[in-house]
């Protein structure tokens, strides 16, 4: 299982092909082609991270069918990966928002329960009244975010940058705020550690 949307590019019968269906598992995607499914062809594996960041996950020498560390795919492979991934740009599920770029986003009253926002950039976003129950915000950038009256019950904010965030009325019951960054004093840090502001 990968972190974003799975994308495969592979060579079959001398033709470059690509696969992307909006699912997050490369293994599931391989089932779309029998030769991929049974390991007769080794594909280039990409991940589409929100909103449209395409990165290669694992890459293979398609001539030899063996893995090659630190090899960069040629342009034709990138082009095919983008071609099949393009319909899924900004169509991720809540479970596929890792490293999302959501700066200045208006997410007022958004339903983000159990969303995976690991490493997401939410700088200056408006999350007033948003429901982030059980959301994973590990290492997220939450500077200057408006979280007024937001529900963060059971949310994981380990290592999150909360400097200048507005948490007025926010519910942080059972939230994990270990190693979270905040601008105020030790007293404020103690309150963070207790899951309250």
Offer a quick outline of the entry.
By secondary structure, the chain is α+β, with helices and mostly antiparallel strands. It has helices at 26-30, 34-37, 75-85, 186-193; strands spanning 5-12, 15-19, 44-49, 53-58, 60-61, 66-67.
Description of the structure:
This protein is of the alpha+beta class. It folds into 2 domains: 5-88, no CATH class; 94-197, 3 Solenoid (Pectate Lyase C-like), CATH 2.160.20.80. The chain has 4 helices and 6 strands; from the N terminus they run ββααββββαα. It has helices at residues 26-30, 34-37, 75-85, 186-193; strands at 5-12, 15-19, 44-49, 53-58, 60-61, 66-67. The strands form 2 sheets. Strands 2-1-3-4 form a 4-stranded antiparallel beta sheet. A hairpin with a 3-residue loop joins strand 3 and strand 4 (53-58). The longest helix is centred in the middle third of the chain and has 11 residues, at 75-85. The two termini are 36 Å apart.
Fold blueprint:
Elements: E1 5-12, E2 15-19, H1 26-30, H2 34-37, E3 44-49, E4 53-58, E5 60-61, E6 66-67, H3 75-85, H4 186-193
Antiparallel strand pairs: 1-2, 1-3, 3-4, 5-6
């Amino acid at each position: 299982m990968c972190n974003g949307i799975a994308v495969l590019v592979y060579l079959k019968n001398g033709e470059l092909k690509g696969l992307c269906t909006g699912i997050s598992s490369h293994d599931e995607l391989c089932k779309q082609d029998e030769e991929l499914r049974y390991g007769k062809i080794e594909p280039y594996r990409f991940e589409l991270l929100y909103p449209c960041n395409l990165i290669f996950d694992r890459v293979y020498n398609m001539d030899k069918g063996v893995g090659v560390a630190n090899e960069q795919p040629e342009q034709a492979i990138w082009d095919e990966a983008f071609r099949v991934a393009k319909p899924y740009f900004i169509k991720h599920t809540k479970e596929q928002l890792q490293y999302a770029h959501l700066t200045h986003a208006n997410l007022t009253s958004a339903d983000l329960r159990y969303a995976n926002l690991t490493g997401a950039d939410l700088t200056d976003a408006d999350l007033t009244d948003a429901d982030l129950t059980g959301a994973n915000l590990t290492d997220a950038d939450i500077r200057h975010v408006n979280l007024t009256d937001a529900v963060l019950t059971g949310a994981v904010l380990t290592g999150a940058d909360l400097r200048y965030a507005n948490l007025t009325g926010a519910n942080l019951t059972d939230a994990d705020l270990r190693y979270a960054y905040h601008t105020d004093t030790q007293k404020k840090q103690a309150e963070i550690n207790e899951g309250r502001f």
